[in-house]
Amino acid sequence: MTRSGDGARRPDTLDSESLAAARRDEAMATNQRRLLVFAGDRDAGIDAAFDVVRGADVPDDEVTFVTSREGFRFERLDPRHASSLLGTTRTVVVLDAHESFSPNALGRVAGAVDGGGLLVLLTPSLDEWASHRDSFDERLAVPPFGVDDVAGRFRARLVSTLRDHPGVALVDLENQTVERDGSYTQGISFETPVPSIPRDADRRFPRRAYEDCLTADQSDALSALEALRRTGQAVVVEADRGRGKSSAAGLAAGSLAAEGRTVVVTAPDERNAAEVFVRAERLLSTLGTLADGSADDYHLSATTGGCISYVPPTEAGAAAASAETDALVVDEAAALPVRLLESFLDTPAVAFCTTVRGYEGAGRGFAVRFRDRLDDSDHDVSSVRLADPIRYAAGDPVESWAFRALLLDARPPVDQLVADATPETVSYRTLTPDDLLADEHRLREAFGLLVLAHYRTEPDDLARLLDAPNLTLRALTHDGRIVSVALLAREGGLDAETRRHMYDGGRIRGNMLPDVFTSQLRDEDAGVPVGYRVMRIATHHAVRSSGLGSRLLSEIRAEFETDADYLGVGFGATPELLSFWRENDYGCVHLSTTRNDTSGEYSALMLHPLSDLGRELHDRHADWFCDRIGDVLGDALSDLDPDVARAALAAADTDYDADLSAYEWRVVVGASYGPGLYTTAPGAFRRLALAHLTSPGRASLSARAERLLVRKVLQTRPWPDVADELDFHSTAQAMRALGDAYEPLVDEYGGDAAREERDRFL
Ligand SMILES: CC(=O)SCCNC(=O)CCNC(=O)[C@H](O)C(C)(C)COP(=O)(O)OP(=O)(O)OC[C@H]1O[C@@H](n2cnc3c(N)ncnc32)[C@H](O)[C@@H]1OP(=O)(O)O
Ligand SMILES: Nc1ncnc2c1ncn2[C@@H]1O[C@H](COP(=O)(O)OP(=O)(O)OP(=O)(O)O)[C@@H](O)[C@H]1O
């Protein structure tokens, strides 16, 4: 034995079994985890992983291999399905990083390893890993760039964390040596407050459920979940991984079932909800009320008539809204699309269990997009947070390593440091990946801002930001602190062959705007101009609405004016965002016809031309958009929020001509000023509605009247639904209001003949 630079004992030759045994003993003694890295040949790595399982003396059914290889006696998951490990507990997880290594997969698996367990990472030789190219890099190689243009900075940074983070054992398989043995004994351990049991008068759930809690936080969460006994309640249970939120929900579900209530449990995959059922089954069984079923079946019934069943998320909204259901428990809520989360709001009582960050691979749609909607819903919302760790002890080195390696705890600057930022105090700067790597603090601030503001930002984005050749970052700083940041993707400039390939239906990576314009909107030349798409933009929450976002966009415009043909953006459309982009002179040219899976919103595409070529691209798409949107709103977008439709049309920068014939004007005038009917020529009304909504400043209509134009005339919704939604007393009143809405349009858009016709009724 010798001593390594970090003071750790270093065996000279490789004995993976003993190494694993030593780390496992240490992990079990402290209820922490340890990370073992085997770097070098892939087959040798897999052999070493088998040695680890043997040395650590772990039963096969507690081991998961996450790899694209097959043929193991252990559970195997393809890296693409790593999310099924979210919320589960495993003793050993082996992540094979040789092929298609993704930061997201690492984020997803790291939290699943139990206290006393081992995370095993199989990597290529660490000296070469940064220059090694795999299918993840191919995804970053967006045309016209090739895989050789992809940098290896993310992996270089990852390797440096593996080389100096405590609790990480590093084995060089090529030289058969242990570079670091990962021994770590000075783990800080914090005293976890002992759970207290509320007095009988202060609790509704059985005493036994509280006795089953392991921490005071869990007991508080259980107490908050008592609210599920009443209708109209929503409880949000938030915590980092492994704090016992699913278990608290399980104890609550068991308590409810023991009282005879019916509980529906949902999660992205039934496996994610396993802990809920295990805890509920134990509780029902100790209470002597378990009648039938088991946690393995994801169905439990109680002797009192209560029951708990798993229902897949797509069916859970309907199941939970049925008369029999009393409460719904949503586990791993952050990993569900916002639209599904919304479908759960018809439930009498609902609990959402979610990770605080979500960003570790579950998604941030819950916090960024759904939380406000929940607060605006009819439910009384209460929240509870669990801090005390359960799955593994506080001070666990694998958790702190994952946080560091994937920037899971990256935060924007604290509010006080940026509170005085205004467009006058800030400086515009380019943040190159090399600058960011050299300044960890700045990297954390920039990335923290993106994570906090964007439901879509995930660990893979850190790799994209550092390595993708088509991405570039711009920011505004105030006193050196980042207050606003924009991630730009270069798109277009594609050769004829690539464009033809796209036009013929072929997929090309990246190039989101040219791809939609070419393949969906049938414009083979759309890939010619070069554009920069604003992939993400975020302003520090403490200084939003101070003009910083707009200042950043104007700086970007000035910088790229001579380098590109257009600036563009695609985002989940909300009225506020559409107006932000319109105020910054981006014109809307498309609304997607399917909802985004994660945000539940339809996407809007917008363009700001910089050159003649960019102007031509914008103008033709703006014209096509206005020509087709009337039909689309009557079809695929018939459920689009009318305020989104209004904002999107207002953001279309084009002169739409309603072009009504003399006959059509007579019908419109008849239906507004006279006794005529809208139903006789809806097309004319539709074109006139479009003319107004694309230039809403020309005639004065209330927001409600504009919503009526959208819902009835463009989306052709049935009169009773329209009247109900827009709070008219009757359909007759809504019909009259529609006639009234067309009066100012006749005045503004009608020619002499129309006015003459109108005057007959005045
Ligand atoms: C591709 C994309 O990234 S689209 C997603 C954009 N990013 C996000 O949604 C992240 C969270 N939001 C933010 O970080 C900011 O609100 C940004 C980036 C949208 C705007 O940055 P700001 O510095 O606030 O912009 P700025 O002050 O120049 O303009 C604000 C205007 O934008 C509009 N706006 C945009 N989003 C919102 C919102 N969520 N709520 C209210 N107004 C909004 C309003 O018109 C607002 O004007 P007002 O304050 O006078 O009402
Ligand atoms: N009250 C309890 N009794 C016994 N074991 C518990 C209890 N609470 C938590 N655990 C154990 O601790 C581990 C983590 O608990 P749980 O899955 O509930 O946490 P979580 O916060 O939901 O984690 P994740 O975010 O990963 O889903 C599990 O192995 C679970 O069995």
From TrEMBL:
Q: Which domain of life is it from?
A: Archaea
Cellular localisation: Cytoplasm
What region holds the TcmA/NAT10 helicase domain?
A: 236-409
The answer to whether UniProt assigns keyword NAD to this entry is no
Record GO terms (molecular function):
18S rRNA cytidine N-acetyltransferase activity; ATP binding; mRNA N-acetyltransferase activity; tRNA binding; tRNA cytidine N4-acetyltransferase activity
Instruction: Spell out the Pfam families in the cross-references.
Output: GNAT_acetyltr_2, NAT10_TcmA_helicase, TmcA_N
Tell me which residues make up the N-acetyltransferase domain: 448-560
Please give the family membership noted in the entry: Belongs to the TmcA family.
Instruction: State the HAMAP family in the record.
Output: tRNA_acetyltr_TmcA
* Name of this protein: tRNA(Met) cytidine acetyltransferase TmcA
